Amino acid sequence: MFCSIKKKIILYKFVSSLLLYLQKKKNMALNCGIIGLTNTGKTTIFNCISNTKAEIGGFATKTNIGMCEVRDERLKLIDDISHSKRIVPATVEIVDLPGLTKGGEGVGNKLLAEVQTVDALIHVLRCFDDENIPHSEGSVDPVRDMELVDLELQVRDLDLVTRKLQRVEKLMKNGEKDNKKAYDVLTIYKEALENMQNARDAKVSEEDKKYIQDIQLLTAKPIMYVCNVDDASATTGNKYSEAVRVSLKEGDEMLVIAGKLESEIAELDDEDKAMFMEDAGLTEPGVNKLVRYAYSTLKLQSFFTTGPDETRAWTIHLGDTAPVAAGVIHSDLQRGFIRAEVMSTEDFLKYGSESAVKEAGKFRVEGKNYVVQDGDILNIRFNV
Description:
- The chain contains 14 helices and twelve strands.
- By secondary structure, the chain is an alpha/beta fold.
- The strands form three sheets. Strands 2-4-1-5-6-7 form a six-stranded mixed β-sheet, sandwiched between helices. Strands 3-9-8 form a three-stranded mixed β-sheet, with helices on both faces.
- The longest helix has 30 residues, at 142-171.
């Protein structure tokens, strides 16, 4: 009897801890994984944007994780009116994964399993010549490299889809229509992967993508390509980045960044950065654009809170409602949500104060069904 009660207490504690973890996970910003072949400059770019500095060079087998700030000029403009004690930008988690190799050599399946855990991919392609940095394939050809990495991910995905198909086929014997639908959808993915296509290009409706959510297909993840070029090509690109641009499908995202140059910019203070970038013909560090692209790729957006103590950007998903946004600030705000007082950043900057926004009739009170818009300034009313 005592043993049974003890087991129930342990189980209760475990479930409570799990629920708490899932709640925290739900409110966390999603993450981007940086992938690519070895010696492409992945870690150099990671170091430019992350608060973690990883070792560069050699055959890396370690995953590096860091947070990077999402530079948003609206924060400073809001604070110019609020004069808060501090400014807190939004952040995105960036995961620098070890370099992939042809045929899954080195870290192999362990690495591919780690790629599964990220929400979107940043594929760094080597678009520079350097005799001192050998290329794993013997020559610089970013289009070939892109195809090699795609193939490694496709092989992994095909195995995942095939295994799930086998499980669903057994379940079809019970006659449930949903199992037949799942089988048909998985077959579409299987055929696409067998034809060396990525899962994201399979002809499947948004609704039917639910059948692959649990297996986290690598090539179904949103992806953007970063062409790591030499310093001289920072603003114009080069023959390698142009070849990548031509090879990409409509809608694919591509960014040109000079990783070595960006690493030098990252080491400077703000005043020297401005002079250095002007000499290089850059209006801002390329990695700032990369972080914004990552934010957009993850379908994230920012809302703001502002006051005497703090002006802060908070991260939510596109389509999130006011109570969900409140929960990102604190779980009590979501639990006891009453209403959200809302004004847009544009109106706040235009009229110069909250009271002036109210006088102009631009201040709104919204309920639980309100879908928060990018740039909303919120004040949450709650009662717990």
